[in-house]
Amino acid sequence: MAPGFQGETSAIYPPPDSVPVGGTKFEVSLMGEKRMAADGKGAEEERIARKRRGGGGFYRPPRLRRVLAEEASAAIRRIYAVSRSIFNGSGTVPSPEDVQLLQFLLDKMKPEDVGLSTDILFLQNRSASRKPPAITFTTIHICDNFSMCVFFLPPAAVIPLHNHPGMTVFSKLLLGTMHITSYDLVGNYETDKYAQSPQLKLAQMVEDSDFTAPCKTSILYPTTGGNIHTFRAITWCAVLDIIGPPYSKEDGRDCTYYKDHPYTNLTGGDLKVKGSFGWLEEVEIPKSLKLIGIEYLGPRIIDS
């Protein structure tokens, strides 16, 4: 993701030297309790509460703090430790055993493990009336080998169709319901002569379904598993993405966006294939895509 998080972006993930800014800060406890820094009514309610607790009329404004800063989630620590051990940089793919281990940990993950609850004020107070809705993200960790980010999508928000060159990606839906469509490019036989335009590439559809949390972790690989995908939020959603290695334009892993066209509408010949296919056309980054970075306030990860 390019610097300047509240405008247009060139990739889905922020570079390592970026610091997310803006957005709404919030905190939740292990039991899902939450509190936001506020003036006026909030301050008055706190003053009254302190009186009832025997605290007199003295009032100290509540401070925002990192969620569970002193009690980092064991689950997110384990996921971080496994990710650090299985992602070994550019040109590598985790072994099947390593993939199974990380998938097992993510499948058991709950929203509280990253400091979320199912009724957090962040989701309740954000307006979904913006057309198109902005998408908020927070970066848990990013290094040369992998990144961990949480994306918050309001209803009707869309992360456009995009690829993950040379990457392995684990996507865990933590909250809500979203529709995922994914493709893999077909490269095992010549298809260009059947396309009406040289910009079109034949792709096989891998997924075209609704997902509701809690659900299994989705996994994609450099050339299989639905490497080119799009997310469309049906309800408020939060999804954790672990990606290795991260996007890097300098290392040839820039993000490419696509527009999909129905296979039957654009076939310029008698190409006959089995399964669901479509033609993918490379496009510029959609102007409608708005990504806003916020500070991660969940359990801290300490790199030892």
TrEMBL record:
Reaction(s) catalysed by this chain's protein: L-cysteine + O2 = 3-sulfino-L-alanine + H(+)
Annotated EC: 1.13.11.20
InterPro entries (alphabetical): PCO/ADO, RmlC-like_jellyroll, RmlC_Cupin_sf
Required cofactor names: Fe(2+)
EC supergroup of this enzyme: oxidoreductase
Lineage top rank: taxon: Eukaryota
Keywords noted in UniProt: Iron, Metal-binding, Oxidoreductase
Membership in a protein family: Belongs to the cysteine dioxygenase family.
Protein name: cysteine dioxygenase
Annotated source species: Platanthera guangdongensis
